[in-house]
Amino acid sequence: EQIKKGDFDHFMKKEIHEQPDSLTTSMRGRLKDGVVGLGGLKDHMRTIRRSRRIIFIGCGTSYHAALAARPIMEELTDIPVTMEIASDMLDRKALIFKEDTAVFVSQSGETADTLLALEYALQHGALCVGVTNTVGSTLARKTHCGVHINAGCEIGVASTKAYTCQIVVMVMMALAIGSDKMSTLAQREAIIAGLTKLPEKVHDVLKLDGEMKALAQSLIDEQSLLMFGRGNNYATALEGALKVKEVALMHSEGMLAGEMKHGPLALVDEYLPIIVIATRDDSFSKQQSVIQQLHARKGRLIVMCSEGDASLVCPDGRSRVIEVPRVVDCLQPIINIIPMQLLAYHLTVLRGYNVDQPRNLAKSVTTQ
Ligand code: G6P
Questions:
Q1: Residue 91: enclosing H or E segment and its boundaries?
Q2: Rounded distance, CA 310 to CA 205, Å?
Q3: Which of helix, strand or coil describes residue 317?
Q4: Tens digit of pLDDT for each residue in 247-271?
Q5: Which residue, by CA, sits nearest to atom 5 of ligand 1?
Q6: Neighbours of 98 (CB within 10 A)
Q7: Given ligand 1 and candidates 59, 161, 367, which is best to mutate, with the most ligand atoms within 8 Å of its CB?
Q8: What is the pTM of this model?
Q9: Where in the numbering of this chain does the SIS domain appear (predicted)?
């Protein structure tokens, strides 16, 4: 086991640090001369483009990856994208039609809830697409078509490198499905250029390891941690909070910043730590106003912003700031989750819990 971990103490740490490589592998052979080629979808592309709706379905981290890719999928394809947590889709017997494309996202390809939702969608005649890390898995076999994320074997129960590779694959899917639209050509070219540079940027953000350890040290005895995000980074808030609760065994909630004034604001005081994701994109000015409102209530803030923006997001120097490299908007969630993964990792180690095998959890939940 130690040999497999290499120079790292835990699989989770190893897998976090593998991300520049896993992302490179995920993209390998799929970005040629500014065009995205996804062999697994080729024969079904006409049907996907004609679908009335795309439904993203998954559980846990895989659901969050789909949520992160949703805005760009809608923007580049002009097809409405809805989200389903697999168990909830089954509980509600959600409406699904043969004009739908149902995209099932699962690292293992064996999660019972996701596979049951797949059976359900197949029965209703939808085109079923798989996004998985496991070649030969049930998901890969039973879907009509799909894309392997090629993140490499993930052993830590908390998913890290699979999450970022899932997002990259779904961004590539959005590029491929939307590649017939002239109106978005410049945007697509910018995203492809961003994908090419992404592993290097991920390498840069991993340098925050020491800073995240120090932040973890300052949060070690807290009962609770909130994370606010919106737009492209709503998923980052949910996934960051999931990482903290599943491995560090600390209560943590990710929240849509737009909903803050509808309830969560009541929780704000000078003690409860709140991470606000305020990197540059269309939502930046709205997040600046969220920060002001939290300051006005003496909130204890930790603000994640783009490099060089510290004085903008925190003019009085009262909050802790995490500066991350800026990338094209739809890829920013990949950069932003990495400090959160590191924070969850260090919190876990400092609190003395099992990083790779958190209590009560399994890597793959194969029962309902
Ligand atoms: C379990 C794991 C999570 C994972 C979820 C979905 O709950 O503990 O880390 O996100 O299953 O797994 P999947 O293999 O379908 O992505």
A1: helix 86-92
A2: 16
A3: coil
A4: 999 999 999 999 999 999 999 999 9
A5: 60
A6: 11
A7: 59
A8: 0.97
A9: 44-184, 215-358
